[in-house]
Amino acid sequence: MRRWRAWAWGALGIVLLAVVWEGYKALGPADGVRIGDTIVLPRTNDLAMPHLWTMVQRAGEPVTSAPGAAPLWSYVLSAAWLSFKVALIGWAIALVVGMLLALLMQRSKIANSALLPWIVLSQTVPLIALAPLVKRWSSAFHIGGFAWADWMSVAVIAAYLAFFPVAVGMVRGLNSPVAAQTDLMRSYGIGWWQTLLRLRLPAAVAYLIPALRLSIAAAVIGTVVAEVSIGMDGGIGRMIIEFAQTGSADPAKQWSPIGGAVLMGLAGAGLVALIGLLLKRYRRAEA
Amino acid sequence: SPTATQPATGSGSGTSGGGATKKVTLQLQWVAQGQFAGYYVAAKKGYYAKEGLDVTIKPAGTDTVPIDVLAAGDADYAISWVPKVLGSIEGGTKVTDVAQIFERSGTTQISFKDKGITTPGDLKGKKVGSWGYGNQWELFAGMQKAGINTDSQISLVQQAFDMNGFLNGDIDAAQAMTYNEYAQVLETINPKTGKLYQPSDLNVINWNTVGTAMLQDAIWANADKLASDKDYQDTTEKFIKASIEGWIYTRDHPQEAADIVAAAGSTLPAGHQLWMVNEVNKLIWPSTGGIGTVQKSSWDQTVDIALHTKDNTGKTIITKDPPSDAYSNVYVEKALAELKSEGADVMGTSFKPITVTLKEGGK
Amino acid sequence: MNPVLRSRLRVVLAPLVFGVLAIALWQWFVTARNIQPYVLPSPSAIWEQFTGSIDIIRDAAITTAKNALLGLLIGTLFGVVCAALAAAIRPIEQMAAPTVVALSVIPIVALAPVLYAMFGAAAQTGRVLVAAIAAFVPVYINALRGLRTVLPIHRDLMRSYAATGWQATRSVTLPGAVPFIFTGIRIASSVAVISALIAEYFGGPLDGLGISITSAVSSSRYSLAWAFVLGSVVIGLLFYCVTYALEALVTRHRA
Amino acid sequence: MTVVVEGVSKVFPGKGSDEVTALSDIDLTVGDGEFVSLIGPSGCGKSTLLRLIADLDSPTGGTLTVFDKTPRQARLDQDYGIAFQQAGLLPWRSVRANVELPLQLHKVAGRKERVNELLEMVGLSDFADRYPDELSGGMQQRVAIARAFAEKPKLLLMDEPFGALDEMTRERMQGELVRLASESGAAVIFVTHSIPEAVFLSDRVVVMSPRPGRIREILSVDLGRGVDRGEGLREDTSFFERVSAVREALHGGAPTGVRGVETR
Amino acid sequence: MTVVVEGVSKVFPGKGSDEVTALSDIDLTVGDGEFVSLIGPSGCGKSTLLRLIADLDSPTGGTLTVFDKTPRQARLDQDYGIAFQQAGLLPWRSVRANVELPLQLHKVAGRKERVNELLEMVGLSDFADRYPDELSGGMQQRVAIARAFAEKPKLLLMDEPFGALDEMTRERMQGELVRLASESGAAVIFVTHSIPEAVFLSDRVVVMSPRPGRIREILSVDLGRGVDRGEGLREDTSFFERVSAVREALHGGAPTGVRGVETR
Ligand SMILES: Nc1ncnc2c1ncn2[C@@H]1O[C@H](COP(=O)(O)OP(=O)(O)OP(=O)(O)O)[C@@H](O)[C@H]1O
Ligand SMILES: Nc1ncnc2c1ncn2[C@@H]1O[C@H](COP(=O)(O)OP(=O)(O)OP(=O)(O)O)[C@@H](O)[C@H]1O
Ligand SMILES: Cc1ncc(C[n+]2csc(CCO)c2C)c(N)n1
Ligand SMILES: [Mg+2]
Ligand SMILES: [Mg+2]
C-alpha cells in the first residue's frame, strides 16, 4: 500500500517534470531569460528543448534512413545493454579492488594512513586524462593469444571511478563492530581472519550496500565517459558522439542516449537493491 | 545493431600475391564515416586481400592520438592531419607521411550572412569557434595572417561535436568541415523560414583560398621500421596501393562507397554520408601529382605555419624544421606506378563531383 | 615514543613516505625502461612542465576552479532548499525521488552538450550548471537525511516548550542537519571540480584545465598534459581540504 | 491539584492487530509540591504516563488535568519543566545557551541573570561557556536539570534522569534534586528503576506492573522533606524498611527468585 | 589461585603529554570459585583491570597470572568466559547461533546439546531461533551470559553485565548468576556500580578510587554462598549493614552529601 503510494508520487513527479518542461517551452522566450549577458533560464527553441513528444516519436523512428535500420529505441536499448555489461565488469573489478584495499586498511593502521589520502587524491584525476594512458598500457598486454580489447580498458576506467565508494564504505563497515564484539573475538583467542569472517565482514554489509549504490552509479558514468574518450564501439558513449554530429539537424535524437544512460543507472540501482535483499540477514539492524 | 562496427576485415577472395595473408591494423582519427570511405571500400572490395593484407580498421575516440597508437606499435598505419603530427615528431615520435591522400584542406570558417564575415580580418572582435585537438591551426594562421591578435582581439569558443552553438548564435563564426559540419547546418530547418538553411545564408572562409591551408588526412607509417624492415616497406607499398584503389573506387562510385561505410557501422544518416563522400572526393580529386603524393609546396606551407603560428596557449606546433624523413613519396610513387601499369586513373583529371541534395536531418 | 605522537607522525609521515616511494619507483621505471611519454610521462618531466608553465596552468586552474566553486555553491543551495522542502512535505520527496536517481546517473558527457544548447555555448554557464547538478545530488541526499534525523528527545523537548514549527526548525532541525549538509558538500566538492573540467570539452570559452589537457594530449605533449592534471589534482585537493576543514569546524562539538 | 489522572488508558497500535496496551485504567493525583516516583519493570508504561501528562502523547481513554487545565493547555502555558534519561542537550549550543533555550523561545526577559542563577544552582557556573561534549555525563544531566527549572515551573517531570550516572554521582544528584525541589516548592513526578532512589526522593512511590500497565500499589514514604533527607538517611533503618516495602510491592507477592520467562 | 595481580599499573597515553594513569600499583588475588566484585566511581579503572586479566590489554607495570599462566596463555587456552555491559550479540545470528559461536570457533563437539543446555539454563529455550533484535535487553543479556558459560570456564569476567537492565530483571538475573556460579564452581570477577548488587553477589567487594585507580579497601561479605543467598537476603539487616559498609568505603570518609565540582 505505502509502496504503491510512493510509486504513484514518483510517477506524478515525472509527469510534473514533463508539464514543467512543456509549460516552460510554451511560455518561455525562445532565447532564454537573461540577467545581463548570462542566460539564467534556458532557451526554449527546438535545438535546446525539443518537445517531449518529438523525442518519444523520434525514439520510435529508425536510427537512420538506411533500409532496414532498427528503430532508435531498440538501438539505444542494445547500446545501453552493451555499456551496462561493461559497467558491470568494471564494477566487479571495483568491488574486488575496493574490498582488498579496505581489508588492507583495516588490517594495518600504517596502510590506512598511507593509502587513504592517495585514494582521495586519486578521485581528483580526471578520467579524460587517464583514459588514453590506460588504453596505451593495456595494449602492451599480449599474453599468449590474449588480446586486450577496448571494452576491457573501459571497464578498468569505470573501476577507477567505482572503487572509491567501496573502499571507503567498506573500511567504515569493517571497523563498525563495537568494542564488546571485537573484545569478545579476542577473548576467544581467534586470529584476524576468523574475526574478519565471523564478525567484520557480516557487520560491514550494512555499510556496503549504500556504498554499492554509489559505486554502480559511478561505474555507469565512468563507462560512458571512457567509451567516449577511448572510442569504444557500440555503447552509449559512442552513440553520444555520433548523434551529436546530427545534433543540430535532428535534436530529438540526441536525447535518446541520455535516456539510455538513465536506464543503466536505474538498472544498477535495482541490482543493488536485489543484492541488499539477498543479504537481508546481515541488515537486521537497519530495519 | 550498434555492434555492427566490427573491425572491417578484408575478406577478399582473390589473393593473387600468393603466400599467407599479413595482418595489418589501420588507426583512424575518428569514428567510421565517409571521410575514411577509401579504406572501408578497399577492405570491402578485397583490394587489401588482393595484396595479401588482412586489414583491421580501428575507429578513434575523442582522446585517441592516432600517431601515438602507431608509434606504440598498436597499429601499423594511422590516418592523421599533418599539423597534428608535426608536434609529435618534434617530441621524438618517429613517423613518416607515406601517402598524402587529401590534397586540399576541408576546413572552413562559416558564419551567417548578416554577420558580414567574408575575410579572416572580419573575425576581429567576434566570437570564433575552435575545435582544438590540433584542428585549429589553419584558423589561427588565417587570423594572424590578417593581422588579428588572437590573444586579445577575438573571443574563442570551444566548439562541440554539434553545431548548436553556431545555430543559436553563441558563435559568430564556426569551424566547419566542408564534408561534415557545413552539411549539418544545411540539413537544419531555419526557424525563420521553416525551410532548410541555404548555402546563400552563409559566408564561408576557405583556408585553401586564404593561403593558410594545411595538409590533412595522410597515411602515416612507423619511420624506424621503414628504415630497417624490408618486409614493412613492402607492406607499406601494398597498403598504399590498395588504399588508393579504394579511393579511386570511391571517386567513381560515391553512393556505393557511402553504403559500405554505413554497413561498417556509421550511424550518420544516408544523405549526410553521401554528401561527405562526395565532398571528400573533392579534396582528393583531381590530383596534381597523383593521389597520395606530397606536394612540396603544400608541405612547406604547412611546416611554415606550424613554425610561426601561435594558438591560444601561446605555443607554436614546432620550433624547428621537421626531419627529412617526416614525409616520403617513395612508397606512394611505387604504388602509383603499379596502379598506372594496371590501367588505373590515379589523377582523376576528369573528376566531376555528383550533386547531393541535403534533406532535413541528413536523411 | 609517545603513541599519540606516533599516531600523529603516522598520519603525516606514512602517506608522504608512500607517495615519495611511489613517485621514485615511477621515475625509476620510466628512466630505466626508457618509457615513452605517450606511455607514461616521468614525474620529473611533469614537474618540469608544471613549473615551466605555471602561469598558464594557474590561469586554466582558476577558470575551472571558479566554475566548480560557483557550481558547488549553486548545487549546495538548491540541494539544501530542495531537501528542506522534501523533508517538510513527504510527497515532494517521493515525487523528486526518480528525478534525483536519474540525475545521479546521467553522465556529464551526455548532459553537457544539452546544457550548452540551453544556456549558450559561449558562456561558462553550462560548465557551472554541470558542476551544480553533480554537486546537487550528494548535498540533497545528505541534507535530507540530516533533516530527517531529528533526535526524538529533541522533538519532545520542542513540543514540551510549545515551540512553533519555525522555532523547532530553527533551533533543532536545521542545526542538527548541518553536519550532514557539510558531509554532502565535502563529497560534492571533488565531483564539482571533475565535472566542471569535463564539461569544458563540449563548449564554453576556450580556457580551463580540461581543454588544456586535451589540447596538450592531441599534440602529444603528455608531460604538459599531466602538468595540467596536476593542476586539477591541486584544485581537487584544495576543494576537498577546505570543505573537510569546514566540516570538522562545524562538527567539532558533536559527539 | 497539580495533576489529576482519571481512568486513563493508552493503546498503541502495533503491527497488524498486535495492539499494545501500555496503560490501563490509571488513577493518580499529585498534590502541589508533592514528590511522586513511578517505579516498575521495563515496559510497564512509566514513560508513557509521563508523556501523557506532558502532552507529548494523548491518551486513548480517560482524562488528565494538569493544574486543572488540559495537558495541552498546561503545555502551552509552560506549566511544567521536563528532563529525560538522556540529557538531550543541543550539542551546538554552549552550556549557557542550552539552559537559555526555553527562555529564549518564550522571549523571557532578564535571561542572562536567570541563567547565571540556574548554573550557580547546579554548580556549573565555571562551565557556562563550554560545550556539552566537553562535560561528563553527570554534568550534562545537571545542565538538563537546570534547563528544566529555567522557567520556575510548579511541576517537574523527570524520566530516569539519573539512569546513566554512576552510583556516587547519582547519589549526589539525588541530594541536589531533593534540595532544589523543596526550595522551589515544585511538585515532581519522577520515573526511576531504582528502589533506593525512589525511596530517598519521594513522598509517595507509585509501583506499576506491566501488560497491561497498571498501578499496583502506591506507598507513602514519610521520611520528611527537603533538607531533612540528608545523606545519613541512606543508612537509616527506616530507609531500609521503605526499600524493602517497595521491593515487595514490586515483586507483587509473586514468589521472588523464581526464574520467569520474560517476553516483550 | 585463579587470578594473582601484583603491583600492576596501567598508563594510557593521552593527548600530548597528558597521560592517564588508569591503574596504579594494584594487588589482588582471587581464589578458586571465589566471587569478587569491583566497585568504584566512573573512571577508577574497573574495566581496565578486568581487561588486563582477560588479556584484552597489557599492563605497563607489574605482573598478572591467571591459573598460574600468563593472561595471554589463559586467553588462548580459553580459561575464562567474559560478558560486557552491552550484550555484544551478533545481530545476524539467531540466539542459538550466538550462544554456539565460541563452541563453533573452537570446533567443540556436541555443540547442539550444549547450546540447548545453556539456553535451558538461562530460560530462553523458547527463543532459540529468534534474533537479538527480537529480544528485550534482559533477554539479550541472558544470551550473552549463556555464551560466557558455553565452554564451562573456571573463571568468569563480567563488566557491568546488568547495567542496562531494570531493577526487577536485574535482581532476578543476580539470583540466577549466584546460582550458576556456585553450581559451576567458577570464580567470578564482577564489575558493578551498584552497591546492593555487589553485596548480594560477592564473597569480597573490592572498592576502588580514581585518579589514579587504586584499591581503597577490600571488604569481605560473608553472607554464605550460592543457594544460601535467597531473595530474602535482600531484606536482611546483615545485608543492609554490608551495604552501608561498602557505601562508606566508597565515599572514603569524605563528608557525604557535599556538592563537589566534578571534572573529568
Ligand atoms: N510509540 C510507541 N509505539 C508503540 N508501542 C509503544 C510506544 N511507546 C511505548 N510503547 C509500548 O508501550 C509499553 C510501555 O512503554 P513505556 O516506554 O511507557 O515503558 P516504561 O515503563 O517507560 O519502560 P522502560 O523502563 O523500559 O523505560 C511498552 O510495551 C512499549 O513497547
Ligand atoms: N583506551 C584508552 N585510552 C586512553 N584512556 C583510557 C582508555 N581506556 C580507559 N582509559 C582511561 O582510563 C581510566 C579508567 O577507565 P576505565 O574504563 O577502566 O574506568 P571504569 O572504572 O571502568 O569506569 P566506568 O565505571 O565508567 O566504566 C579513565 O580515566 C579512562 O578515561
Ligand atoms: C572533441 C572533438 N573531437 C573531435 C571532433 C570532431 N572533429 C572535428 S574536425 C575532425 C576531423 C575530421 O572530421 C573531427 C573528428 C570534435 N568536433 N570535437
Ligand atoms: Mg521509559
Ligand atoms: Mg567500565
UniProtKB/TrEMBL annotation, chain A:
Protein name in UniProt: NitT/TauT family transport system permease protein
UniProt-listed SUPFAM superfamilies: MetI-like
InterPro entries xref list: MetI-like (IPR000515), MetI-like_sf (IPR035906)
A GO biological process held by the record: transmembrane transport
Top-rank taxon: Bacteria
Keywords tagged on the record: Cell membrane, Membrane, Transmembrane, Transmembrane helix, Transport
Record's subcellular location: Cell membrane
UniProt similarity note: Belongs to the binding-protein-dependent transport system permease family.
Keyword DNA repair included in the entry's annotation: no
From TrEMBL, chain C:
Domain annotation ABC transmembrane type-1: ranges: 61-243
Cellular-component GO terms for this entry: plasma membrane
Alphabetical keyword list: Cell membrane, Membrane, Transmembrane, Transmembrane helix, Transport
Example GO biological process: transmembrane transport
Transmembrane segment boundaries: 12-30, 68-88, 100-122, 128-151, 172-199, 224-246
Subcellular localization: Cell membrane
PROSITE patterns, alphabetized: ABC_TM1 (PS50928)
Domain of life according to the entry: Bacteria
Primary localisation category: membrane
Mode of membrane association: Multi-pass membrane protein
SUPFAM superfamilies: MetI-like (SSF161098)
Family, similarity comment: Belongs to the binding-protein-dependent transport system permease family.
Descriptive protein name: NitT/TauT family transport system permease protein
Species for this entry: Branchiibius hedensis
TrEMBL record, chains D, E:
One Pfam family recorded for the sequence: ABC_tran
Cross-referenced CDD domains: ABC_NrtD_SsuB_transporters
GO MF terms, alphabetically ordered: ATP binding; ATP hydrolysis activity
Record bears the keyword Hydrolase: no
PROSITE patterns in the record: ABC_TRANSPORTER_1, ABC_TRANSPORTER_2
SUPFAM superfamilies linked to this entry: P-loop containing nucleoside triphosphate hydrolases
Domain ABC transporter: 3-235
Keywords from the named record: ATP-binding, Nucleotide-binding, Transport
Signal peptide as annotated in the record: none
Protein's name according to its UniProt entry: NitT/TauT family transport system ATP-binding protein
